[in-house]
Amino acid sequence: MDLVTRRVRGAEGIAGPLLFLEGVPRARLGEIVRIRAGGEERRGQIIELAGARVAIQVLEETRGLAPARAEVTLTGEVAALGVSRGMLGRVLDGLGRPVDGLPPPIAEARLPIHGAALNVTRREKPADFIETGISAIDGMNTLVRGQKLPVFSCAGLPAGRLAAQLVCQARVRGGERFAVVFAAMGAPFREYDAYLEAFRRAGVLDRTVVFLNRAEDPPIERLMTPRCALTCAEHLAFGHGLHVLVVLTDMTSYCEALREVALAREEVPGRRGYPGYMYTDLATLYERAGRIAGRPGSITQVPVLTMPDDDLTHPIPDLSGYITEGQIVLSRDLDRRGVYPPIDVLPSLSRLMGLGVGPGRTRADHRPVADQLYALYARGRDVRRMAAIVGAANLGEEERRLLEVADRFERELVGQGDAFRSIEDTLELGWKLLAPFPAEALARIPAAVLEARRKEAR
Amino acid sequence: MTGRLVRIAGPTVVADGLAGAGLNEIVWVGEERLLGEVIRLERDLATIQVYEETAGLALGEPAEPTGEPLAVELGPGLLGSVFDGVQRPLDALAARQGDFLGRGARLPALDRTRRWELEASVRAGDDILPGAALGIARSGASAHPVLAPPGLGGRVAEVRAGAVTVDEPVVRLVGGAEIALAHRWPVRRPRPIRRRLAPDVPFLTGQRVLDCFFPVSSGGTAMVPGGFGTGKTVLEQSLAKHAAADVVVYVGCGERGNEMAEVLDELPKLDDPRTGGPLLGRTVLVVNTSNMPVAAREASIYTGCTIAEYFRDMGRSVALMIDSTSRWAEALREISARLEEMPGEEGYPTYLASRLARFYERAGRVETLACGEGSVTVVGAVSPPGGDLSEPVTQCSLRATGVLWALSADLAHRRHYPALDWSVSFSLEAERLRGWFEREAGEGFGALREEAMQLLQRERELVEVAELVGTESLQDAERLVLESARLLREGFLRQSAYDPVDASCPPRKALEMLRLHLELHGRAANAVAAGVPLRSILEAGLGTRLLRLGSVPAEAIAGGAEALRAEIGQAIARLEAE
Disulfide engineering: B219 pairs with which of A352, B334, B375, B566, CB 3.0-4.6 Å? Predict the structure, then answer.
C-alpha cells in the first residue's frame, strides 16, 4: 500500500460506463478506484492503460457524474471481497455489501474476486452426487459434486421456480456440511422477492449466501456479481470444507452486460455482437467449479440461462455448453402441458453422471434403470409422433405400451411438482414405470439386476 | 536494452525503447518478470503478448528482451510430464505455488534435480551426424534416447561418464562444442528432416469405423468436428489410449479442467497394451484449460508439436492430439482483436487459414536426420459454434487436413459411439492406404469396404422412402437391406469404449467381422430371392450373434468366425429347404 494517497482531480471525459483520466501516477491494470463527485462516492476499476490515459470502468450508475468535478482516488488494491463463514444467512448486493439491514459480516480474509486458475494437477475428479430432490435430475441426469451443469431455459418458462427449488431442497448425503451460494444477476423485483420469500419459507436462509444484483443496478456490477459469489464459495468450500452449490441466474443478463461494456469500450464485436473473448470470460467463471486433491469441500455450479428466441445455437447457450459438463434443458412443450419441472430429458445430459451414481453413491440399479427409461421414453416419443399421423387406433400393442410409458414418465416421474423426492423414491417409481414390460424388452438392464429385483419383490 | 510499458490492455502490452528486439523474441514483462513474446514492432514500440495474467501491471514497469524466441526444452523426463502451454511443469508449479496457479514462477521444464546415467552408443573418435542418437539415458526405471541437436555434428572428442542432470554436457565434439542430455528448440520453427515419405502406411486407431472406412496415414492429418456433447473428447482420449503410436502428445487446448483431471487420474492406471507399462509412460500432456491465460493457449499447440517432432526425430511414431483447434483459433482472434487488426470472417484474423495450414504441414512421415523413419500424425478436434460446419475454423481445417471424421449429434443422442457420421466423413488417403490393408489385413479389404459403404448408402435411400410410405410397404429384399445395415451399424460401426476387448480392434479382426456381416447379408439376400420369407430369416436370430463379435478377442476371431459361418450356412440352407 502506498503511503501517499494517489488522487486525481477532474477527469477528461466520460462515455457510458467508462471514465477517462490523464496523469494518474503508477496506475495498475485491474486496480480499484473511488470516484467522488457531488457528494456521492462510486467505485470503478482500471481496465486499460495507454500512455498518460487511463480508462476506468465505473461500477455504479454514471448518470449525473460530471467528469470535471470528479475526484478519483486509487486504492492500490485489485477488486477483492472480504469473505467469512458469517456470510451464510446474509443477503448482499452484487458487490457483496449487505442489503438486509445488518452490519457487514466480519471478514476472515480478503480475496481477489478474479480468482486464480486451479492447477489441473491439483484437481480431484468430481465424485459423489448432490441430491436435488428432482427426479429428472437425480435419476436421469445426476448432478455430481465438482460439476458445472447449467439449466437452459426459454423466456416464460419457470426457470426461477426451479432455481429456488434447487436452493431450498438440495442436500448431500452422509452428514457432510453443505451450503448454497445464490447469485441473481439483473433480477427484477418480482423475481428476487419471490426467491427471498421462498428461501425464508423453506427455512434455508442460514445455510445460504444470497448475492443480489437487481435489474436496476448498473450492468457492470453484474460482471462482478458471479465473481463475488464464487470467491465466497471458494472460501466456504476450500477454507471451511463445505460442499457448496452455486446457483447463478440469469447468465443471459450477465452476457448482455458483458456485451454492453465491451461495445462501450469500442471493442471489435464477435458473433451477435458479443465480444470475441466471451468463451474465455465464461470459462473463468465456470471453471471455478471443482474439487481439490486433499481438501474436503467442493464447488458445484448450476448456472441458469435463458436461450434468446429458444435458440440452442445462440452464442450464450452454445459457448456455455462447450465449457460446462452437460446441460438440463427445459421444454416449452412440457410446460404447456402443465408438467413441472418441464425438464426434457432427451437433450439433457450430465456428462459426469457416471462419477456420481452406482453402489456406494446412489444405488447399483441406478444406471441401468436410467438407461432403460431413457431408451423407452425416446422410443415412446417417436411413437407419439407417429400416432399423430396414423392415429392411435392403428398402433400395435407394443407401440401403445411405449406411448403409455412416455406419458406416465412425463406425468409422474418428471412432473413431480414442488415436492422433494429422494433418489430411492425416484428409482422405485422408475421400476414401476418399467413393470408393464417383459424382461426381453428391458435389454439395457443386466439379467443379474433384473433377477435381484424379482427376488426382492417376492 | 530494457523497455518500459506504455500501454496495458488485457493479455497484450506495449513497451517502448525496444528498437533492437526481434519478432517472436521472448521478453520478461514487469517487475514480476512475466513471460511475454513480441508479436509486433513499430519503430521502438513492441507489442507483447503476455503468457500470464496481466492484472496488477503498471505503466513504466520494465520489459526486458532475452534475445531468444519462445523455445521448449527437449530431453529425458518429458514422458509422463504435464506442462502448461509454454512448457512450465504443472506438477512442480503445484509443489511451489500450491493449488492455484500464481505468476512469475520460473521453473525449468525438465527436473534439474534428477540425475541420469548415459549409456553411450558413441565413442571418442566417432563421427556423428546432426540429430544422431548418442545413447540411452537411464534414471531408475526410465530410459530415454539422447539426441544430438539438429545442426550439431562432427567428430566426438570425449564422452563423459557418470550420473548427470539434463543440462550437463555429456559429449564434447572436436572444436569444443558440447552436447547435453537436453537441448532447446524454438516452438514456431519446424525441426529439420531429411525428406518426407509417401503416406502409404496407416496410423491404426483401433476404432473399426476409422481404420476400415476413413483411415488416416501415419504422418497424416485428421480433423474431428462436432458440436458439444458429440463425443469429441471421448474419441480423442480413446485414440490417446488405443492408437498404435510409440508416443502420444495430448494438447488440452482451452478445454475443461475436470476432463484433464480425469485423464490424469486414468492414464497412470491404464496399461499400454504394447509395452505393458503404464500408458502415462508414453504420453506427454500439454494442458492450457479454458481459464488459463489466452496467449499461452495460442502457444500450446506449437509447444505440443515441437515435443512431438522431437520424438519423431528419434525414429518414433508419434500421435499429436489437439483438443481443440477452435479454442486455439479463438485465442488467435482474441489477440488479433487486441491488436486492432482488420478482422476477416466472423472476426477471425485473415491469416487464420495460412497459420492452420502451416501448422498441419508439420505432420508427416519422414526420414529423420539420423535415426531412420519417424512420424507425427495430427488429430485436431474442432468445436464449431452451434454445430455449424460452415464456420471458418472448420472450413480452413477442411482444406488443410486429409481426413474428416465428422461427429453427429443425432448419433450421440442415440448413444451410438463413436458418433461418426459415415455419410459426411471422408478420407483422401484411403486410396493410397488400400495396398497396405490388402497386404496386412487380408485380401479383399477394399472390395468389402466398398460393399459395406454401398449397403449403408442404400439404407439411407430406403429410409427416405420408408418415411414416406412406411416400412410395411417395402419389399422383403429392401427390408433385408435395412436389417443388414442396422446390424452393420450396431455390430461393426459402433464400438464400446467400456468393453476391455472391444475398446480396440486390430484390422484383421475388423476385416473378419466385416466379411461375416456381408456374407450373412449375401446369403440372406439369395434366400429372400429364392422365396424364403424375411421373417423366418430374422427369427433364426443370426443377427444377434453378429452383434457380439466385438467382444471376441482378436486371437479367437478366426475360429469364432468359422463356426458362425458354418451356422449361418446351415440355418439358411434349412430355411431354403423348407
Answer: B375
